[in-house]
Amino acid sequence: MVKKLPFNKERVEEIMETEPSPFYLYDEKGLRENARRFLRAFSWLPNFKNYFAVKACPNPYILKILKEEGMGADCSSLPELILAERVGLKGEEIMFSSNDTAAGEFKKARDLGAIINLDDITFIEKLEKEAGLPELICVRYNPGPLRKIKGNPIIGKPEEAKYGMTKEQIFEAIEILKKKGAKRFGLHTMIVSNELNPDVLAGTAEMLFDLALEVEQKTKTKVEFVNLGGGIGIPYKPEEEPVDLEDLSERIKKLYEKIIIKSNLPSLGVVMECGRMVTGPYGYLVTKVSNEKHTYKEYIGVDACMANLMRPAIYGAEHHITVLGKEDLPSNHIYDVVGSLCENNDKFAINRKLPKLKIGDIIVIHDVGAHGHAMGFNYNGKLRSAELILKENGSVERIRRAETIDDYFATLDFSKI
Ligand SMILES: *Cc1c(COP(=O)(O)O)cnc(C)c1O
User: Fold this and answer.
1) Atom nearest to 275 CA in ligand 1
2) Is 53's C-beta closer than 6 angstroms to any atom of ligand 1?
3) Which structural domains are found in the chain, ordered by start?
């Protein structure tokens, strides 16, 4: 897929007059159009909703845009619940899919009326003690060796993933919850990540439709909805293609007809928790070339580092790079594009073919709108950048300021030394 930018060099230079690099820049128009297309593709499903995975882009401004487009929030920590609350989401617009859940989190989720998605059977007791059991509850399934998929460094194979319950535990959990007064049930799974293969994605729906059928047969319990989790991938590399959402929807429809409608099951709702495919392609990391170095390799040093974007370092992820103003020049130089952190994996690109670069060039790193800024950290005294949004009317607004050295020191008390 050809990677296009919603801005050009002149516009970015204008922005840089008031906003120093590096910064994240989100594209509101692209974000909204994509959200609409996504929701439209699956609108035939009963009660379809996407609970946007807040961890992908925990900025309230972005969450508010997604709320306006009709999305809920999928949270897995107390601060994420608070973010959802602060943008005005409540009740069943919030899914709480935590694991290794900390004390106090269930209480907050219950106070907001969120749908609680139980990662483990032992959490029935924990939830009951801490916050009381709700009438509506979702249980998280991990098929383990029953589902053969390759996995990737982000999520691993199901049997090696820490999430969810075994099939027997799902049946048992539902029986226990029913005895304790639960009345409405959901089934959840999340077993793929950044998946572009529609067969594998539809396979998750098939697995949960089958499980809903089994639950009805084994426990005489009506399942109200299945939650397919997130995991729809995005084409990070130009040679990859995005998932055809209409095609995926059609595949899921065939399975729904074959399994749910044929079995005369009552109408089963279907929801998702996609993060990456919602915001990923609509966020850009803008950074400037600050140094060049010629040793055993050709290095280009930029003013961002892995503290601003760690996907290349931890997953070996390839993010496409555009050099502003040099789009039409031949990519006839081979560079490692690196940051300043004292870790040798602080590289945005390795052996990347790019046009000849010089200090001051502006580099745009693509597809960082999900799991990008959110994964930032402060190791080595590095500070997280600002987040800006390019609005539909063409203006740019800052939606998070850059961290300062004072922020970095804010948890220390120098009077004690
Ligand atoms: C991370 C996560 C998601 C979102 O995954 P994407 O790959 O961003 O779509 C959804 N649900 C749960 C439980 C997650 O942990």
Assistant:
1) 8
2) yes
3) 9-24+281-409 (2.40.37.10), 90-274 (3.20.20.10)
